[in-house]
Write a structure and sequence with these properties.
about 50% helix, 5-stranded mixed β-sheet, Dna Topoisomerase Vi A Subunit, Chain: A, domain 2, alpha/beta, single chain, about 260 residues
């Protein structure tokens, strides 16, 4: 076993990462904590059984596949690493997964905690505005790695507060907290992501969330197929980082309300 662990958000980043000369074991985080049920204690059995149930029902996944792809993979966190590198992106999907990872690490590490570094891809000019780590080659991965930021106790405390507020889902409390925090240290991409989430929590006069309203507007402007709706939403609302399967959750709600017909 290596002393170094790299945590990648999703399988898409693996091929580019494999082109690097970076040492270490790899853990692929395959959860979508930005959707579905959450509890504050991410290390509890009930947290993961609720996730497993929701994922398997929502995405027609197999329970064994979830155990294998998600739970077994997370078992790697039980090994003693001296260094952990977190590879995440700027969008809400990635940033909420990042909060989950930080929660797991902060709840299980002791005083001899590993050095934890964050490597975040924002909309970088240097990478031709690559939308995700999956679009980068090995050289670009190494360039990002060189600029990595070490997280300290302060960032972990901020992330814990953010996680608690995220799990509670109270728009008023989240808005107040975002207003009170002006310094974000090594996690600067958390704020815009949580601001996007705040928009998602606020319900308009029509009883719709921001995402539902956006999808309805896209549909009403002439996009009548799922694929054309995905493309427009993805292009204009990158901050949410939603894949097609996540967008379907919202489209299905609009169908149930008989606001769209796909």
């Amino acid at each position: 076993m290596s002393n170094i662990l790299h945590i990648l958000n999703g399988d898409a980043a693996l091929s580019g990462f494999n082109e690097t000369g970076l040492d270490g074991d790899v853990l692929i985080w395959r959860e979508v904590l930005s959707e579905g049920p959450l509890q504050e204690n991410i290390l509890s059995g009930s947290f993961w059984s609720a996730r497993a149930k929701w994922i398997t029902q929502t995405f027609k996944e197999d329970l064994d596949a979830y155990q294998n792809k998600v739970i077994d993979e997370l078992g790697k966190l039980n090994s003693d690493y001296t260094e952990i590198n977190l590879w995440f992106e700027f969008d809400l999907h990635c940033q909420v997964n990042l909060l989950g990872v930080l929660q797991m690490l902060s709840r299980k590490t002791d005083m001899s905690a590993p050095a934890i570094y964050l490597i975040c891809l924002a909309d970088c000019v240097q990478f031709n505005f690559a939308k995700g780590l999956g679009e980068l080659n090995g050289e670009q991965f190494e360039e990002l790695y060189d600029g990595r930021e070490r997280l300290n106790e302060w960032e972990f405390e901020l992330a814990t507060e953010a996680w608690q507020l995220y799990v509670q889902g109270d728009a008023v409390e989240l808005e107040k907290w975002l207003g009170e925090n002006s310094f974000w240290g090594g996690v600067p991409l958390l704020k815009p992501a949580l601001q996007a989430h705040l928009k998602r929590l606020q319900i308009n006069e029509a009883g719709l969330s921001y995402i539902e309203q956006r999808l309805l507007d896209i549909y009403n402007s002439g996009a009548k197929t799922r694929s054309s709706i995905y493309a427009t939403f993805w292009n204009e609302d990158k901050i949410f980082g939603m894949g097609d399967a996540e967008i379907d959750i919202y489209l299905d709600r609009l169908q149930q309300k008989q606001l769209i017909n796909l």
